[in-house]
Write a structure and sequence with these properties.
By secondary structure, this protein is mainly alpha-helical. Helix 1 runs antiparallel to helix 2, helix 1 runs antiparallel to helix 3 and helix 1 runs parallel beside helix 4. It is elongated.
Length: about 250
């Protein structure tokens, strides 16, 4: 009977440390998501202000498309984050962990008193454990459980559920694939957009207009001037010819 009660206490403790780890992960996700929304909004403003830097000669069309896409992305991301309710889940995980820790303490006190352990005693504490889980209707993830055990030296030595030869893989999985990592990558997305616009954006070259065809009135005026000039030259030649003929006769 004592071994069975110790197993219930051990189960309470394992579940409690996993819930506390889940609460810490929810807190990181809440902080990272808030920072992500704030930084993306700031980056959109910076991209719009780049237009006023004349030395960059940026393409207005590229900037407009980029800011519109980022704005829509921030709107959708905000709706998703509000639906995930990280802050509320953090409180629930933490409260569940506290109740399980208290139950584990009660079991250890009962064991320390050396009282007789009956079937009713085992059933009572097991029902208390299940009642706490039903009260907080949420569960921790496997990675939270594995990481909580890995961090705890006592569980590190006692647990047989985890292959500790894969500790390096577990650390990589925890740090790279945890939920808040995606928000750090999304925050960097805005900075990448700013760098892309500055480096690759070029102004749109407006096509140069070719020489326009002269209007009919301009052509007529040109012909008139040319004709007038030719008639004037012809008249001058006739006058000079008459003068020359007159001088020759004299």
């Amino acid at each position: 009977m004592k071994d069975q009660l110790n197993k219930i206490a051990d189960r309470c403790w394992k579940t409690a440390v996993a819930r506390f780890e889940s609460a810490r992960r929810m807190k990181r996700c809440h902080n990272a998501s808030t920072l992500c929304i704030a930084m993306l909004s700031l980056e959109i403003i910076v991209i719009n202000l780049l237009i006023f830097i004349k030395s960059l000669e940026l393409n207005d069309v590229v900037i407009t498309i980029t800011t519109v896409c980022l704005s829509m992305f921030v709107l959708v991301l905000s709706l998703i984050i509000s639906h995930l309710k990280y802050e509320k889940r953090e409180e629930q995980y933490h409260e569940c962990g506290l109740e399980l820790s208290n139950l584990e303490t009660d079991i250890k006190i009962y064991l320390a008193c050396g009282k007789e352990i009956s079937h009713e005693t085992l059933k009572y504490y097991n029902d208390q454990y299940n009642a706490i889980l039903r009260k907080w209707n949420l569960n921790h993830s496997d990675i939270d459980f594995e990481w909580a055990i890995y961090k705890n030296e006592k569980l590190h030595k006692a647990s047989e559920d985890i292959n500790w030869r894969k500790n390096n893989l577990l650390e990589v999985k925890w740090h790279l694939l945890r939920s808040d990592s995606i928000y750090h990558l999304l925050t960097a997305l805005g900075f990448i957009a700013i760098i892309f616009i500055i480096v690759y954006s070029q102004p749109i070259e407006t096509p140069t207009e070719g020489p326009k065809n002269p209007s009919i009135e301009t052509q007529n005026l040109h012909i008139y001037k040319h004709t007038s000039s030719s008639n004037t030259i012809s008249e001058c030649n006739c006058i000079f010819s008459d003068i020359h003929f007159f001088n020759h006769n004299i």
